Amino acid sequence: MAAEYSLLAFDNNHERLKPFQAAASAAEVAANCQIIVLCLPDSKVVRSVIESLSDRLQSGMLLIDATTGDPEDTVQLAAALRQRNIGYVDATIVGSSEQVRRGEAVVLVGGEAADVKRAEPVLEAWSDRRFHLGPSGSGVRMKLVVNLVLGLNRAVLAEGLAFAEACGIDAALALQVLRSTPANSTVMDTKGPKMVARDFSPQARLSQHLKDVRLIRELARRHGAGVPLSEAHERLLARAVELGLGDADNSAVLGVYTSGAGPHHHGPGTGNR
After folding, report:
1. Residues in CB range of 263: below 8 A, 6 or more apart
2. CA 8 from chain center: how many Å?
3. What local confidence, expressed as pLDDT, does residue 239 receive?
4. 157 — alpha (psi -120 to 50), left (phi > 0) or beta?
5. pLDDT tens-digit map of 143-183
6. Which domains does the chain have, with CATH numbers?
7. What confidence tens digit (pLDDT) does each residue in 198-239 have?
8. Can you tell me the mean pLDDT for 191-202?
9. Which of 29, 110, 128, 236 could form a disulfide with 138 if both were Cys (CB 3.0 to 4.6 A apart)?
10. What are 75-125's pLDDT values in tens digits?
């Protein structure tokens, strides 16, 4: 809106539509827009929405998908749409909702060069930090690489703060020290204060990151890559969900360490997914 685009929006949660010109359905969006942006929970939902819109999608249209989903599904969808002369670009976003609002996000793009060029005016409105990683699926793959490192940064910060508290050190003071040493990371700026304050109001939900970690492990399996830390991370996040923290912010991973139950519980999160 700030970039002066005319927007027509649809979401199953009508509360989210209040700032926008609202459509009555996704089909109404497809009937009136040449460029459609998707931002959905996972690849299954993306596929379902695209299939439901099949009769409305016309040659020359462009879909920009910001969903963090399965890269292989992204590749298949792009190939199927290309046969109909419909462009499809995966443009995943690195950053919380707040960071996106402030224009601090990073956009990771995959797709055919011509489609990416068509998408550029829209992507410019999202962020001035954009990377075209290669063909369809490349943006999603890189997003999973970023989420692997980012998620483990959050987990190790939670473990460090809980460790400091167990040793009798004030968590706020421990965070101040950590941020003054080579151990510092941007995660300490974004999630450290939330962990110290036990403020788990969601900026990005923990359950969504568990979904991402399972995608990371599946992608690693397909490519023969070892991700032992992500295996442990999946168990940690699954335990957090068991403790009722799935809808809380990603910083709530601290709750596994402070619940008294410990992070090494072997329950539904254990094993390959």
Report:
1. 159, 235, 236, 239, 256, 257
2. 23
3. 97
4. alpha
5. 999 999 999 999 999 999 999 999 999 999 999 999 999 99
6. 8-135 (3.40.50.720), 141-258 (1.10.1040.10)
7. 999 998 899 999 999 999 999 999 999 999 999 999 999 999
8. 97
9. 110
10. 999 999 999 999 999 999 998 777 888 888 999 999 999 999 999 999 999
Predicted confidence band of residue 251 (pLDDT cuts 50, 70, 90)? very high
Token digits of residue 156: 């190790």
CA distance 48 to 163: 44
Place of tokens 């941007």: 186
- Structure tokens, 223: 């490519």
